[in-house]
Amino acid sequence: MAWIYLVVAGILEVVWSFFMKQSDGFTKWQPTLITFATMFVSFGLLSLSMRTLPLGTAYSIWTGIGAVGAFVAGVLLLGEQASPMRILAAAMIVGGLVLMKLSSPA
């Protein structure tokens, strides 16, 4: 169950980072509200996953999902650049996440 919590927490990290961008520096109330609500749930689920998973594993997977997810959301939803170098960087993060999962005892 810890891995499910962790993946959902990572997905919510993508959601809150996207809506933080949409909040325009917290000047728009609806995206700001979504940012803080999803941030709260994301942190809560991360905390639950850390009951079982090692700190380094849980935190790096959570931030990795957020980093790659935010990159993909930026490209697909905001028209941000998808250069070969940025795609390679995202692929390297995914590779690190896979290695972290494979090396985790939980």
UniProtKB/TrEMBL annotation:
Q: Which UniProt keywords apply?
A: Cell membrane, Membrane, Transmembrane, Transmembrane helix, Transport
From the record, give the transmembrane residue ranges. 33-50, 57-79, 85-102
One Pfam family, short name: Multi_Drug_Res
Origin superkingdom: Bacteria
Q: Which membrane topology describes this protein?
A: Multi-pass membrane protein
Note whether Hydrolase occurs among the keywords: no
The UniProt entry, under SUPFAM superfamilies, shows:
Multidrug resistance efflux transporter EmrE
Which InterPro entries does the entry link to?
EmrE-like, Small_drug/metabolite_transptr, Small_multidrug_res
The listed locations are: Cell membrane
The family annotation for this protein states: Belongs to the drug/metabolite transporter (DMT) superfamily. Small multidrug resistance (SMR) (TC 2.A.7.1) family. Gdx/SugE subfamily.
Name by which UniProt lists this protein: Guanidinium exporter
Native source organism of the sequence: Sphingomonas olei
